């Protein structure tokens, strides 16, 4: 089993930046692909970004491409999401997720989930 804990959420003005972190435990972190998803109230969970276990392959949703960067530090068992040029529509609960395969965009293919961290972007 894998336990995931997100941190770094908060309130930021539009155009600002925020960095989310996710700490993993319970399984060898370097063998897991990691992803970030977000969910606004009353909306479906949305893919944000994912990274392969090697760190060499990343994918992003079109809505965040060029603004967000996903990275991982296998020595520290962490994955981060650097969010720049934030927009009010980025407001959501952000979830860290993990799976034993490659990076994918479908939430149903992820096996482990964190508790979420709130990101609020004010206009």
Index terms:
123 residues, mainly beta, 7-stranded mixed β-sheet, 4-stranded antiparallel β-sheet, globular
In short:
With 123 residues, this protein is mostly beta strands. Helix content is 0%, strand content 50%.
Structural class by SSE content: mainly beta
- Helix fraction bin: under 10%
**Tally of separate helices:** 0
Low-confidence segments:
none
Summarize the biggest pleated sheet. Answer: 7 strands, mixed
Rg (C-alpha, Å): 13 Å
What is the string of SSEs from the N terminus onward? EEEEEEEEEEE
Give the distance, in angstroms, between the N- and C-terminal Cα atoms. Answer: 40 Å
Describe this structure in words.
The structure is a single chain. With 123 residues, the chain is an all-beta fold. It is built from no helices and eleven strands. Strands 2, 4, 5, 6, 9, 10 and 11 form a seven-stranded mixed β-sheet that branches. It has a four-stranded antiparallel β-sheet with strand order 1-3-8-7, with no helix packed on it. Strand 5 and strand 6 (58-60) form a beta hairpin. The radius of gyration is 13 Å and the shape is globular. The model has no long low-confidence stretch (mean pLDDT 94).
Strands, helices and their partners?
Blueprint: E1 3-7, E2 10-13, E3 18-25, E4 33-39, E5 46-51, E6 58-60, E7 68-73, E8 78-83, E9 92-99, E10 112-113, E11 117-122
Parallel strand pairs: 2-11
Antiparallel strand pairs: 1-3, 3-8, 4-5, 4-9, 5-6, 7-8, 9-10, 9-11
